[in-house]
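To the team - D-mannose complex, inputs and output below.
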Amino acid sequence: MREAWRWFGPFDAISLPEVAQTGASAVVTALHEIPYGEVWPVDTIRERQALVADAAGSDLTWEVVESLPVHEDIKHGTGNLDRLFANYRQSMANLAECGITTICYNFMPVVDWTRTDLDVPGRGGAKALGFSEAKMAGFEICILKRDGAEYDYAPEVCAQGRAWFQASDERERETLLQTLMAGLPGAYDRYDVPGLEAVLKKWQGFGRDDLRASYGRFLDEVVPAAEDLGIRLGVHPDDPPRPVFGLPRVVSTADDAAWILDRVDSPANGLTFCSGAFGAHPGNDIVGMAGRFADRIQFLHLRNVSKDPDGSFQEADHLDGDTDMVELLRVVLAEEHRRKETGRQDWNIPFRPDHGRELCPDIGRGAHPGYPFVGRLRGLAELRGAIAGLRSAGKHSGSMR
Ligand code: DNO
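Output:
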């Protein structure tokens, strides 16, 4: 398993020498400044590669793209799609020319990952990300006033949402909006409430089958080219794995993953296996899913969540929470072993410690929400220890090398 670290580029509050000090050897990044749908030029990719490689005394390399974004028109199935597909293929070709062959993307319409809280307090004042069904219901019903929102929540959750709204002041409501928008990547403008209403209007009546149709078309258009280029595409699951703002989502469950992988049966069409995003769905057995889809895992995000019965969840420490992380690592190591035995070049699967709590030295540093330095370093160190232990145990039993 290859240790990777997400770095958001020159404007990341965390510097490349710090990334090097974590011990990770691979960098996960993107050209966040390039607008969605435009081609990533070879020169710009090379410049970013050089920046990563030249980081003080390190041997870091840019290994994984996260993300090569899919334009909203592709998800919606309208607009100049031929141009957008051609541009996506060209960006993949340019990345392959520069030797970068693992690409993560998502297929969530309008919003990327969504949380209601960025500072759920933990031990000693550590802060974690969280998702409260009640707050989400309060936002949708009382602030956004989305038609039919109350039918998407259990009656008691609607009541809790309304109670939250009644008790909140302007500042808290504004903080909730900012928090819900915090997951939108760099190149995107944040929406205010009227802006969100306007964009949602465009998607009205657009259902799960429509989104699947758009997704199928995207896969048909880009996977054959990816396969020719030696590119491995890995879709990131929906986060949270359920519809948000009435928008459909189609990468949430094991059935969804099976549909995607069968739709275009190619080694180029795979998963970014995010244990935290898939793990927030009560019906997903993460260790079982990792085993079932092992040969199509291109890249892993490792983190954990603790779920509540109403669908809310909080981000937990990496080895804590609802997923048995050590078992998950065991499955991944076994898959690596199998790949090596069968001569697959991509046996060394990159993973990154995903998210982390904000710990004391992180507070006030201005890192991206969910991406503090020390909190993630703690996660990486724990995962590294667990992997080393499993490897050593496997060596003795002969099941892994
Ligand atoms: C959140 C991330 C996601 C991910 C994209 C991939 O922390 O895991 O924003 O980068 O969904 O396209």
